[in-house]
Specification:
Blueprint: E1 8-14, H1 27-39, E2 44-50, H2 70-79, E3 82-90, E4 93-94, H3 96-105, E5 124-131, H4 136-149, E6 159-163, H5 180-202
Parallel strand pairs: 1-2, 1-3, 3-5, 5-6
Antiparallel strand pairs: 3-4
Helix pairs in contact: 1-5
InterPro entries: Flavoprotein-like_sf, FMN_Rdtase-like_dom
GO molecular function: oxidoreductase activity
Domain NADPH-dependent FMN reductase-like: 11-165
Length: 211
């Protein structure tokens, strides 16, 4: 049972190619919403931002100068206990927007504290993938490796996805309901992420010994 006295927070970045004012609904948004809903019984609350609604400049620094809106998103990522990277599949791979997010997080490698811990140390990461073509596992592999490289902790069974039939036009957002297999995956990922995030919040990684 969740510890109600120890609430957790989650923050998601939707890496859709469409801005939020688009007439087309976002399947990535729906997957993220379903995952956040699955976390609610575990004492986790959170929100999401669509990356393309912000001027996230290309680069590998935490601040790329005037007009760069990544620093504000970065602060929200690091303020949360659980980070969710949501991406559609394009040409069998994560979206270019998801790649840009990971590239900007590359800065974490050079931002360690006095114990060698990156800013994401003690933070849990999940990856939510949607598409109507193959590539979910490849997208998970790419994103999880990048998130692990920059210090996030990956829970067991934490990759959630839905892919439709190849060469057809049905999207996740078009479904009448959440398929049982996806619902089960969401529930497992939510439970494992909340459990691990609580453990790390109580006792973060010690880092390198001092002296």
């Amino acid at each position: 049972m969740p510890d109600a006295a120890e609430p957790l927070t989650a923050f998601a970045l939707n890496c859709s190619l469409r801005q939020s004012d688009s007439d087309s609904p976002s399947s990535t948004d729906k997957m993220i919403s379903d995952l956040l809903a699955a976390m609610k019984p575990h004492g986790v609350t959170g929100g999401t931002e669509r990356v393309v609604d912000h001027n996230v400049k290309p680069g590998v620094l935490s601040d790329m100068g005037e007009g760069d809106e990544w620093p504000a998103l970065r602060a929200r990522v690091l303020a949360a206990d659980i980070f969710i990277l949501g991406t559609p599949i394009w040409l069998g791979h994560p979206s270019s927007v998801a790649r840009r997010v990971l590239e900007r997080m590359d800065a974490f490698l050079g931002e360690t504290d006095d114990r060698g811990r990156m800013p994401a140390a003690g933070k849990v990461a999940l990856v939510a993938v949607v598409g109507n073509e193959d590539g979910a596992h490849a997208s998970h592999a790419s994103c999880f490796q990048g998130l692990n490289d920059v210090g996030f902790t990956i829970p067991a069974n934490s990759g959630v996805y839905w892919v439709g039939e190849a060469m057809h036009g049905t999207d996740y957002v078009d479904l009448d309901g959440v398929p049982d297999a996806v619902q089960s995956a969401l529930a497992t990922a939510a439970s494992n992420a909340a459990h691990l995030a609580r453990l790390l919040k109580r006792q973060n990684y010690p880092g390198l010994p001092q002296g």
